[in-house]
């Protein structure tokens, strides 16, 4: 891998922060930044908690919670279990809590929790500081699942993944699924 050259772009300098609005979910920031060519640009960004998405697998099946309403797009979608990483908590603990909350799976039922990325992926690096941590959770085979919580399953096979990719529109969920596929060479 090539090292960054000394003539590469410089970090942009904040000239003025004209808005900082806090809520429980995020902080919205408006700033004037001076870019590496000396131009002053109006720039908006958000700061949010990191998030986790968990791909749960039991035996030869991928487990998916019931579809849920997504306010951002105004639709009900099929997604993997996911959630925010609370301040001071590790992504691993957040992943375990997410499985409990969304699928009713206790920590003791998780045979193996495999992180797909140790540093987290930038969700939208030009607009947000949020990182996404992906996990694969192998669930003990004898654990009985709640039919009210686990409403969809797909085969954990090449054809099952192809079918699932036709149904999952969430880019973050797709990234976790495809990263798992790369690790398993499907």
Question: Could you explain how this protein is built, in words?
Answer:
This protein is an alpha+beta fold and about 190 residues long. It folds into 2 domains: about 15-50, no CATH class; about 50-185, Nucleoside Triphosphate Pyrophosphohydrolase (Alpha-Beta Complex). The protein is built from 3 helices and 12 strands. Strands 4, 5, 8, 9, 10, 11 and 12 form a 7-stranded mixed beta sheet that branches.
Topology, element by element:
Elements: E1 13-22, E2 26-34, E3 40-48, E4 51-58, E5 61-65, E6 68-70, E7 75-77, E8 81-84, H1 91-103, E9 110-115, E10 121-122, E11 131-139, E12 150-155, H2 158-167, H3 171-184
Parallel strand pairs: 4-11
Antiparallel strand pairs: 1-2, 2-3, 4-5, 4-8, 5-12, 6-7, 9-11, 10-11
Biggest beta sheet attributes: 7 strands, mixed
| Number of helical stretches of at least 4 residues | 3
What name does the CATH topology of the largest domain carry?
Answer: Nucleoside Triphosphate Pyrophosphohydrolase
- Average pLDDT taken over every residue: 93
- Reported CATH architecture of the largest domain: Alpha-Beta Complex
**Helix content bin:** 10-25%
Please report which band the strand proportion falls in: under 5%, 5-15%, 15-25%, 25-35%, 35-45% or over 45%. Answer: 35-45%
Integer tally of domains: 2
Determine and state the CATH class of the largest domain: Alpha Beta
Instruction: Output the helix-strand order.
Output: EEEEEEEEHEEEEHH
Instruction: Tally the beta strands.
Output: 12
N-to-C CA distance:
27 Å
Task: Write out the CATH superfamily name of the largest domain.
Answer: Nucleoside Triphosphate Pyrophosphohydrolase
Q: Decide which structural class fits the backbone.
A: alpha+beta
Overall geometry comes to elongated
User: What is the radius of gyration?
Assistant: 20 Å
Stretches where pLDDT is under 50 for at least 5 consecutive residues are none
């Amino acid at each position: 891998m090539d090292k960054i050259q000394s003539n590469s772009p410089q970090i942009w300098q904040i000239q003025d922060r004209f808005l900082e609005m806090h809520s429980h979910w995020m902080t919205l920031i408006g700033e004037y930044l001076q870019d590496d060519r000396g131009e002053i640009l109006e720039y908006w960004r958000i700061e949010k908690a990191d998030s986790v998405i968990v791909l749960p697998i039991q035996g030869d099946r991928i487990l998916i919670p019931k579809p849920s309403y997504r306010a951002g797009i105004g639709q009900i979608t099929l997604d993997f279990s996911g959630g925010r990483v609370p301040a001071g908590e590790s992504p691993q603990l957040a992943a375990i809590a997410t499985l409990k909350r969304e699928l009713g799976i206790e920590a003791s039922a998780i045979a193996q929790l495999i992180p797909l990325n140790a540093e987290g992926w930038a969700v939208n690096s030009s607009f947000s500081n949020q990182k996404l941590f992906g996990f694969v959770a192998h669930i003990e085979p004898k654990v009985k699942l709640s039919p009210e919580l686990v409403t969809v399953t797909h085969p954990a096979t090449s054809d099952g993944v192809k079918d699932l990719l036709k149904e999952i529109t969430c880019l973050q969920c797709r990234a976790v699924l495809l990263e798992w596929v790369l690790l398993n060479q499907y």
